[in-house]
Amino acid sequence: MTKESSGKCNTTNKAVLVWVAEMVKLCQPKHVFWCNGSKTERKALTAEAVEKGILIKLNQKKLPGCYYHRSNPNDVARVEQATFICTVDQEEAGPTNNWMAPKEMYQKLRGYCSGAMRGRTMYVVPYLMGPPGSPLAKVGVELTDSLYVALSMGIMTRMGNIAFQQLGDSDEFNRGLHCMLDVNPERRYIAHFPEDNAIISVGSNYGGNVLLGKKCLALRIGSYLGRQEGWLAEHMLILRIQSPSGEKTYIAAAFPSACGKTNFAMMIPPPRFKGWKISTIGDDIAWMKPGLDGRLYAINPEAGCFGVVPGTNSKSNPNAMKMISRDTIFTNVALTQDLDVWWEGKDGPVPRECLDWRGNKWTPASKEKAAHPNSRFTAPMSINPVLAEEANDPQGVPISAIIFGGRRSDTVPLVYQAFNWVHGVYVGATMGSEMTAAAVGGAGQVRRDPMAMLPFCGYHMGDYFRHWINMHKSIKHPPRIFNVNWFRKNETGNFIWPGFGENMRVLKWIVDRCHARTDAVESPLGWVPGAGALDLEGIPDFSPQKLEALQMVKDAEWHRELLMQDELFMKLYSHLPKELIFQRELLKARLQ
Ligand code: OXD
Ligand code: MN
Questions:
Q1: What's the half-sphere exposure (Cβ side, CA atoms, 13 Å) at 466?
Q2: Ligand index nearest the alpha carbon of residue 210
C-alpha cells in the first residue's frame, strides 16, 4: 500500500485516541485501520473487498466503478424490534421505542463485543454529517469490522480526514461501534445512548442498521440533540424547484421509507412544465434550524443515496438511472451472466437466466423475486445529474414548504394545505402509511407513522410533537405545511393518480401557494386547490372525475381514521400537547 492508504492513525484528538484504544481492548482486532477517505485508500480497500468475496466487480464496460454485494438472507432490512433507545429514564424514550437501561444494554453488548474482532480488522471510520464548516454539521466516528460498511460510509458521508479537521480538539463526536458478530438475528441489536451521544450496533450488516451516520446518528440521536439545541432532525428529502423565470423555492418532504422520496427529489417535470427544473439537495434526511432572517434553513447531512432499487427505471426516475450507472454499490439485486445487474421493474428485457439476490439460479418461471424488494443502491450524491450546488452550502437552504405524505389506498386526498403551523403539526403527527419492505414485517398494513419518524425518533413522540409546536416561536416566517397522497386507488384497485413526473402538478400548486399566487378553497381537512387551480393539461387518460375521486373526503373513512389516530394519541397521552387534541376536536367538528 502507498503511504496515502496506509491505514495509520490520522488524528491527535485525545478523546478519539482514548476511546478507540478502549474499544480495541474490548474487541481485540488483529489490525486497526484508520480511514483517511482518500481515493487511493478507496481503491485499495475495494480491491481487498473483491479479493475477499465481499464485493463482486461488475461489468466495468456497462457499469464503470460499480460493485455488487449480497447480504446474509436473514439480514435484508431494518429491524425495528431490535432497535433500542437507552435512556436512564424509560419515560424519556416513550412508548413507541424499545427501551433498555443504558447500564444493562452496555453490559449486554460489551459482552457480545468482547473479543468479537479477534483475527479481524477494525476500521476506524471518521465521518462528517453535513457540509464542511456548517454550523449544523456533526462528526461521528464508527468503528466497524465490516469492510462493506467502511466502503459504504465512504459514499454516504464525507468520510476521512475531513471529519477530524472539523472536529479539531473537541470531544463532541458520536461514538459508534459496529460488530457483525455471526450476523445472527438472535444477537442483533441497534442500541442508541442519546445521553452519551453513542451507538452500538451488533449482529447485522444491513445498511439501515449499520451505516451509523444515517438512521442512528442523523435521525435518532439527531432528533434528541435537535430538541436540546433548538433544531429539527427529520426524515425528509430537500428539493429546489426553479421556475422558468429563475425563481428558486426550497421544499422539504417527509414520506415513510420506500414511498418515493428519492424519485420526488430527482423528478423531471412533464413537457407541459417547460422551463421548470427540479434539483436535489437531499433524498432522505434534513437537518433544519431557524436562521437569523427568521426562516427555517435545511441541510442534507448525507453525501450519498441509499435507495430502493426495484421499480427504478427510466419512467419512475431517469435521473437515478443515470446516477447508478457508475461508482455504485448494488446490494441484493439480481446478477446476470455478463455481470450486469437486474431487478423487477428495470427497463429492457427480463434476463432469460440470472442469479437471484440469494445467489440461486433464477429464470422468468421462478416463483420468487430475482431482486429482494428492499435491494439497494449506494451511490455518491455528486453523480446525481440534478444535484443542486446548494447541497454543499454550509448555511443550507431556506424552506418555503414542508410536505407530509404517506402511502394510502383510500381516505387521504391527493393534496391539501394545513390552515396554520399547529394544524400542520397535527397533520404530520397523525400521518398513516402502509408499511413497506424497508423494515422487517407488516408490509401493507396501515400504521401511524408520525412525520415518517416513528422508527427514527430518539425520544418520546409526544415531546417530539411539543418540540415541533415550540419551534414556531423561533421561526418568524414558517414554511407552509401540506399533505399529499400519490397512492389512492379506485374500486378496481388501480392507482388513480399517475405519480412520478406528474407530481410536478401538485408541486407547482404548492409553490404557488407559498408565493400567494393561487387560490384555495376550504375543506374539512384544510385548504384544497380551487377549480382549475391544479394544472392537469396533458395527463394521458385523466378526467375531472378522477380528480374528484382523488380529492374526495369520505365521512365514513375519516371517522375510521380518527379512531386510528386516537390509538396513537392514547398511547402518547401523558406527553401529548393539548393543542393536538384541540386540532382533533376541530377536525371532528368540521367533518360533522
Ligand atoms: C432508508 C429507510 O433506508 O428509510 O432510508 O429505511
Ligand atoms: Mn429513509
A1: 15
A2: 1
Q: Which three cell numbers stand for residue 91?
A: 419515560
> Could you report the per-residue pLDDT of 109-157, keeping only the tens digit for each?
999 999 999 999 999 999 999 999 999 999 999 999 999 999 999 999 9
- Cα–ligand 2 centroid distance for 282 (angstroms): 11
Residues 94 and 182 occupy one common structural domain: yes
Q: What does the buried/exposed string (b/e) look like for 514-537 if buried means 16 or more CB atoms within 10 Å of the residue's CB?
A: beeebebeeebbbbbbeeeebbee
* Separation of CA 270 and ligand 2 centre (Å): 26
- 401 and 254 assigned to the same domain: yes
Cβ neighbours of residue 212 closer than 8 Å, sequence gap 6 or more? 140, 142, 174, 176, 178, 199, 201
Note the pTM of the prediction, 2 decimals. Answer: 0.97
Which protein residue has the closest C-alpha to ligand 1 atom 2?
Answer: 257
Query: Does 306 sit in the ligand 1 pocket, CB within 6 Å?
Result: yes
Reduce the DSSP state of residue 4 to 3 states and report it.
helix
Q: Is residue 67 part of a domain?
A: no
Residues catalogued as catalytic: 259
* Amino acid letter, 179: C
Total domains in the chain come to 3
Residue 257: closest CA among 411, 409, 77, 130 = 77
State which of 230, 263, 279 marks the end of a domain. 230
| Ligand nearest to the Cα of 286, by number | 2
15 C-alpha to ligand 2 centroid (Å):
31
Residues by chain with Cβ below 5 Å of ion ligand 2: 257, 284
Distance 283 CA to ligand 2 centre (A): 8
- Cβ distance 332 to 358 under 8 Å? no
Residue 423 near ligand 1, beta carbon < 6 Å:
no
Out of 79, 156, 209, 215, mutate this one to test ligand 1's pocket (max ligand atoms within 8 Å of CB): namely 215
- Mean pLDDT throughout 464-473? 98
Report d(CA 472, CA 478) in Å as an integer. 7
Q: Is 376 in the pocket of ligand 1 (CB under 6 A)?
A: no
Query: Do both 402 and 531 map to the same domain?
Result: yes
C-alpha of residue 507 to centroid of ligand 2, in Å = 21
**What whole-number distance in Å separates Cα of residue 344 and Cα of residue 364?**
11
Per-residue pLDDT tens for 156-172? 999 999 999 999 999 99
In ligand 1, the atom with minimum distance to the C-alpha of 284 is 5
CA distances from 310 to 281, 314, 437 (A): 23, 12, 11
Residue 181 lies in a domain: yes
pLDDT tens, position by position, 25-47: 999 999 999 999 999 999 999 99
pLDDT value of position 156: 98
Indicate which atom in ligand 1 lies nearest the CA of residue 78.
6
Nearest ligand to residue 375 Cα? 1
Over residues 481-531, the pLDDT tens digits come to: 999 999 999 999 999 999 999 999 999 999 999 999 998 999 999 999 998
